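Reopening this one. Same input as before:
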Amino acid sequence: GQVRYSVPEEAKAGTVVGRLAQDLGLEAGEAEARRLRLVAQGRRASVEVSGASGALVVSSRLDREELCGKSAPCALRLEVLVERPLRVFHVELEVTDINDNAPIFPAARKNLTIAESSVPGSRFPLEGASDADIGANAQLSYTLSPSEHFSLDLQKSNERNIEPELVLTKSLDREMIPVHRLVLTATDGGRPSLTGTMELVISVLDANDNAPQFNQSVYKVQLPESAAVGTLVTTVNSTDVDEGGNSETSYTVTNVIPLSGRDVISINPKTGEIHLTGALDFEEVSVFDFRIEATDKGTPPLSSHCKVVLEVLDVNDNAPEVSVTSLSVPVPEDASVGTVVALLSVSDRDSGANGRVRCWVWPASPFGLEATFSGSYSLVLREALDRERVSEYEVEVRAEDGGAPPLRARRGVRVPVSDVNDNAPAFAQAVYTVLARENNAAGAELARLWARDPDEAGNGRVSYSVAEGGVGGGWRPASSYVSVDAESGRLWALQPLDFEELQVLQFEVRAVDAGEPPLCGNATVQLFVLDENDNAPALLPPAGSGPEAGGVAAEAAAALGSESGTLWAWAAWGAPAGQVVAKIRAVDADSGYNAWLRYELWEPRGKGPFRVGLYSGEVSTARALDEADGPRQRLVIVVRDHGEPARSATATLSVSLLEAAETALAAGAGSSSSRSAAGAESGSGAASAATNVWLVVGICAVSSLFLLAVVLYGASRW
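Same output, byte for byte:
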């Protein structure tokens, strides 16, 4: 509905016009919370909404005459907005008139010339006063200062105006009184009333005693407002029964209502033709009243008057005007259908069908117009928005009036769409396969991961992290091996990788945006470690004495790199060719070709009594042994892998050549020492088991005491 208030003009600033918030149904304090306010309408309204109370108060001087002129009633149409949700209310404020303007005559002094031959009853129209007020405050009454020759008669020209006429009541005698000085007083109908005066100076002349007479008292003319300058309005005509110069008449315009009409027409003083000298505007003035005076050239000249009423007809010369009174942008992409985006005001200064306006939106989707009041529209959302598809709309509001031909107007509205976090980051691949060589440098880049988020700003800013856990690293999490740069997605190694420790590492990388709430996406990374030949063959100690070892005895040390240990073996004189004396055992921590070992006899070179199996490592006799071979043979054996470059280890084997009986004794000693070593080893194992049992008992006791202390402390605190 529409709220209406009235306030007298010239009300003091701060005067409460009405309790607007209460009349609109708002609760106490809601007016300020919802930002109750007025929307500017192009001209100063002189009122405002009090933010605390929600009352409509006078903010500056209210002058009804300045706001509305002579229009009655003087109604100001205001638009009031509240937010959350956005609503518009229409308030009509009527400014009532007070008597603050006194009547004003066109001139402070009026000179009249009246022939002494004028008969009693002769009438002389006077220019009436004007009052800027309206209603009773503008109802004027006139009085004339006392005179025995003149009286005042009031003629009602229309419902609004009263025209005073000076009436001759007694014949004039110029020789007795050549000049009469009277005062015409105009009094308005206000309370208290205000007055204005004009001095009448009446000169009495002889001779010419017949005034010109118009053939009609009122000329009514209609012209369209599009009439061109120079158009003939009408021709006034008067006759004078006098002869000679007393019958020659000239025409002048003496009074114009409103005063702006002085520049609209001109009259030919000889022919009485009235032509347009200015443009007509129906929206400014629809009716002009002109007073035409015909004056003869007698001595003294006589005059008569007629009225010309010019009615201006409306033409469709004003295009519709579209203005945006409120714009709520940007619009979030999750805004619901029906959300008000903008408030628009559409007007056309023409009247009738020329002023009836039809509005629509182009293109229609996804916005539409809803009429909220006469000339007011809301731009509302018709369909759901998607910023990733369209981030901004250029909406055009078009208006067309009902004239012939119709006039059109358009107003563009830019509606940006703000982003919400409705898209999770998505990796280009669900599974990434990464190959990395072992012994890589710490900090080396392994791969680059990238996830796309079509949102913008923080909603589209992606940060990367390695999810806890991982398969293939044993008990160690994946984050101890690799890390990912939070901004760039660069995957890099935290430490050198060791194929012998880790062959495959599978883990997840998470991409999280900075939206609220944040959204995330995952990708699986399979990291395969490629073997490098970084381990040299390692020699193992002998397995013990036995037939296969040929009596290998005592200590043997593993060799790493260039280090070497000494192995001992015995062989009997006369041993046949092919008898195994010892077996060199070695392992390589690498895999594949890097761990495939071969054995070579380095010393002695040439044809010696012994040889080494290329891949078995067995040391055997190359021929039958004899005394010429000496009591001891020193063999240097090199173990190499097939890596690139190849790595090697060296073993030194000392073979003693004995008689067959001595060889048997050495073998027996070796067996007994092996058994004693085994017994010692079993004894030490039993002692170690007992120690482990007592260690477990001690740990349990300490844990029980700690738990009891915690329980007692909690109980005392409770």
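So the earlier flakiness isn't reproducible anymore. For the record, The chain has six domains: 2-96, 109-205, 213-313, 321-418, 426-530, 538-542+564-658.
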